[in-house]
Structures are given as C-alpha cells and as structure tokens.
Amino acid sequence: MQSQVIVALDGSTEAEAILPHALFIALQTQSVLTLLRVIMPPDEPGYGAQYIPDDWYAGEVSWTKNYLAGLATRLQGQGARVHIQHVEGTFAGAAINSYAEQHADVQLIALATHGRSAGGRLLLGSVAGDVLASAPTSLLLLHPPKDRQLPPGPITQASYQTIVVPLDGMVGSERVLQQASRLALASHASVLLVADPPPPLLEQQVRAQEEMKEADFLADQAEQVRSSTGLTVQTAFTEGDPEAFIERLQGQYRQHLLIVTLRQQAEHKVMSFLHQSTVPVLFVA
Known about the structure:
Blueprint: E1 4-8, H1 13-16, H2 19-29, E2 32-39, H3 56-76, E3 82-88, H4 92-102, E4 106-112, H5 128-134, E5 138-142, E6 162-166, H6 173-187, E7 190-195, H7 204-229, E8 233-237, H8 242-252, E9 257-262, H9 267-274, E10 281-284
Parallel strand pairs: 1-2, 1-4, 2-3, 4-5, 6-7, 6-9, 7-8, 9-10
Antiparallel strand pairs: 5-10
C-alpha cells in the first residue's frame, strides 16, 4: 500500500507555503500527496454573515474541489501522485486527525501554522496546536513568510542545504537521526547536530563536566552518521538560545534549513519558535 502525505489547506496563500516542503517528502518517500480541506457541515455554516444562501454548502464543496484540483495540476508536473479530498468538521484539528486515524497509510501531516483567506475560511493557526497534540503520525509544520506567495505555474519541491537535528540524549534519537540522514542524502545536504549547553547556574566544574559529556555524545553520534552514510556532519551548541542560533544560521549563511526532531522534545518551545521563524520543522512520531 502506498503511503500518504496529507497537506491541510484552507484556500489561503499562506497555507500553500507548506506545499514545496510536503512535495519534497512525498517524492522522497514515494508517497501519495493528499490535499485536504476541512469544510463546515451543511447545518453549521462557518460565516458570521446574517444572510447565508441556501446553497452555500454546495458552493463551498464546488469551490473546494476546483481549488484543490488547480493545486494538484501544478504539483503533478513534478512526478508526484496527487489526490484531493475534503472532509466535514466543526473543529478542523479534530477533522484532520480523524482522517489520518481512519487511513493507516498516512505517514505525515503537513500544514502551515496560520493562514486565513479573505473570505474568512479556516484559520490554520487555530488548529496547528491541536493537530500537534494528538496527530497519530509525524507532522511537518511551517510558519510561512508574511505576504509571500508561491510563484505561478508548477510548484517545485523544496531543497535544503542543512538538516538541523536537536539532540539531548533523548530516547528515540536514533529514529530521528535515521530520518534526518535519509532526507539529507536525498537533498545532498549536510547534517548539523545541536544541543543546549548545561544550565548556567551549575557550579563551574560540574558545568564543565556536563558540557564535556554532551560534546562527547554529539561527537559520537556525528561519527556514527558519517560512517554509515558518508554525509558531512557537524556539531554545535546553541549557547542556550535555540531561536537565535537558528536565526543566525539562516541569516549569516543564507542556508535553506530543515529541523528534524521528536514530537516529545520541547513541543511548546518549538511551537513558540515556529511563530518567529520561517524554518520548517519535521516532528518525527
């Protein structure tokens, strides 16, 4: 059975910003790219207007099909198999997760952390946290650049120069490194393993010992990835400020980055970071 990569869309250009990243993963994993839009049930129109046409639901379904079909045409030129789907739901996050739960072949849900069309359609920013909290699979999130739109014509897959992997000795790090390595090989990217330094309040000698342990751990993990894949792998400490560290990488070196981490690892911190950065984050289930 061919796996699925779901892309949740709401009709806004901001939400569409996730498409090149989802396309990259779908192509590398030979998955079907499913474009999914949640619409309100026919007895619960989601508009605040006093007058709602009797045929509003039929119009919404028709608009959704045409919109998703248009995007599918722009994506298929890259060789991807694209499927379009709409589902009903009062709560978008629950509807997206429900679709994933009902389809065992779904391996990834991709969505932008916000995006609302001029017509007031689904606000993805209100559901990203819900999806992250209970999605049954891996998740790809992106805070889209403000006012930036995909160029017209075919939608091309994203490319990355560096795959950033936060590590802290967590359980499951091997799974994250395997995923990061596969994506780095596919995009001819390097891998950067990073960790936060020990807390500054520790006694100086203890802090030095802990920092040495973390450095040794990163070096050991880096050597394992190098020897098994041939990738270029570097290590670094974030200096206690992951957001500033990533922004520095992105700004100073003009690198196209992808962060790969576990969903269990500091989800609230990463969600906060997403609202201040345009770097996509892949949460591995």
